[in-house]
Structure prediction request, 259 residues.
Amino acid sequence: MFTVDSISIRYEQKSVINNFSFSVKKGEIVSIIGPNGSGKSTLLKAVSRLIPYHTGTVILDGTDLKSMSAKQVARKMCMLSQKNQAPSDMTVIDLVSYGRYPHKKWFERLNQEDMDIVHWALEKTHLIEYKDRAVASLSGGESQRAWIAMALAQRPLIMLLDEPTTYLDISHQHEVLELVRELNQDMGMTIVMVLHDLNQASTYSDSIVVVQAGEKAMYGTPNEVMTTDMIRDVYRMDAEVQYVQTEKKPRIHLLSTVR
Prediction:
């Protein structure tokens, strides 16, 4: 479905991502974790083609990403950044409608089929009653759902989310991640997201990529990745990892910084 093969990214003469490879299966939720400055968001931006990569290959649904036009990429993949802004007077339905433009010709107007998809995206994100509200008037969680609705309206095969819970309080973080899980389970949508919270990554992911200083430190299931050794080596923290019989995913309890 989605394969990153040996990509390297440089800023000027500095190497930021080194020979990085991982693959994502159709219908998976994959989280990218790692310390601040490790290259998580840079990696996601590169595989979404927002920034160039120096060497390597990204294959999306069997096609080399570099051989695809921007519109072809947008029809198959959508990227949402950490913080998104809309004009102050833009309504939710107008924002979501923008998701249809990768499927339209230049200056071609939206038709009834497009508007049906827009309303479907609003319903999927539980925003139908907010459709005429200004995006700027929404709460943090509602606003994030509106941007996800826009992404849904593109009807992509894969959605990339760069720290989707940043700037949100605990309840809105839970709301957004539950929506991501719902889209994955109900629609089979493939999700790749950058997360900071280790317990959120453990709970909501099928697989986890660990980035350390621009390199892949680990890649596997939450049970394989979330170990005391990984947390100590990558985050320089001592931790307890609890395995509860009634749950399939481990819980992480951070204890102290490694001296």
Remarks:
- The chain has a mean pLDDT of 90.
- Residues 2-83+156-257 form a domain with the Rossmann fold fold (CATH 3.40.50.300).
- The CA atoms of residues 161 and 193 lie 4 Å apart.
